[in-house]
Write a structure and sequence with these properties.
The protein contains four helices and five strands, in the order αβββββααα. The chain has 153 residues and is α+β, with helices and mostly antiparallel strands. β1 and β2 (46-51) form a beta hairpin.
Length: 153
């Protein structure tokens, strides 16, 4: 269930909490800590997760997961010159997939078994749909709910 947000700062806060919680869940599924993550709630919403691995076909390059609200998740390699990351694969047709699904996708990509997209999919849609998808990852709501549950008994 979604609730209308009062103003732009409420909306930005809801996106920040949802996206940062989601990125933390994805990073945990990838086996890296939150210190390896960044999120940006300026349009378009985006995230970056530095991974502690290499792809066999790019063994000399660091790997990162990238997310944005238009294209979803992609796997990218770092460049040696400090230029933009080079996207090598897109994770698919879901904007906010389960973290475990992304972990499986990455394992399949390493093995060469993934059905990765090489062109950016257009996954964006209404902001409310994205906000609803991210709501369950909001840790601030978990904490508030846990406090109520503890008092009951």
């Amino acid at each position: 269930m979604t609730h209308p947000l009062g103003d732009d700062s409420d909306r930005e806060y809801a996106f920040l909490c949802g996206l940062s919680g989601y990125v933390a869940a994805v990073s945990a599924a990838m086996g890296v800590g939150e210190e390896s993550c960044t999120t940006d709630v300026d349009p378009p919403l985006s995230a970056y997760i530095a991974l502690e691995m290499r792809l066999p076909q790019h063994s000399d390059r660091d790997v990162a997961l990238l997310w944005d609200e238009r294209h979803g998740w992609s796997v990218a390699i770092e460049t040696n010159s400090g230029e933009d990351l080079l996207v090598v694969a897109y994770a698919g047709a879901e904007l906010v997939p389960e973290p475990a699904r992304l972990s499986r996708f990455l394992a399949e990509l390493i093995r060469g078994d993934a059905r990765a997209l090489t062109a950016a999919p257009e996954l964006g849609g209404p902001e409310e749909r994205l906000l609803t998808s991210l709501q369950r990852y909001r840790r601030d709501l978990w904490t508030a709910g846990a406090g109520r549950l503890d008092r009951r008994g």
